[in-house]
Amino acid sequence: MIKRTHAPDDLNQKHYKRKAVLLSLLLGLLFLFIFYHSMLLNPNDYLYTDWGDGIKNYYTYAWHVKYDTSFIHFSGMNYPYGELHQFTDGQPFLANVVKLVGKIFPGIEEYAIGILNLCMLLSFVLGAMVLSAIFHEYKIPPVLSAI
Question: Facing residues of 73 across strands?
Answer without folding.
Answer: 84
